[in-house]
Amino acid sequence: MSTHPDKRYRPRSRRWISQLLFLFAVGGLALGYQFGWLPKGLVYFYGAASLVTFVVYAWDKYAAKKGWRRTSERLLHLLALLGGWPGALLAQQWLRHKTIKRRFRVVFWLTLMINLGILFWWLFKP
């Protein structure tokens, strides 16, 4: 039971899951390219999408602290869906941003699963 005053507080003990998934994503992309399962362009695309997504999360965190206009959650989810989810995972954990709101997290994990589903379908289509 949490004694933290904010009932939405999520303990840091679960951070390792996201970090492990990030490492699997990066390792999977590297191995996929190395064994010829993934084209180089796709690996670069995921890397670029992750970098852009991380920067957008960082900007949103900065805007939140300054009280400026925020980045829409729709855009954050779209970036994750388009392949930026490894960068989003990293940003969520390193920046401690977008980790409390349950609805956001649920939609984020759905976008991640949809993206991976499309990737696996593309790789293993008959």
From TrEMBL:
InterPro entries according to UniProt: DUF1294 (IPR010718)
Swiss-Prot/TrEMBL keywords = Membrane, Transmembrane, Transmembrane helix
Q: Which residues cross the membrane?
A: 20-37, 43-63, 106-124
Q: What is this protein called?
A: DUF1294 domain-containing protein
Its domain of life reads Bacteria
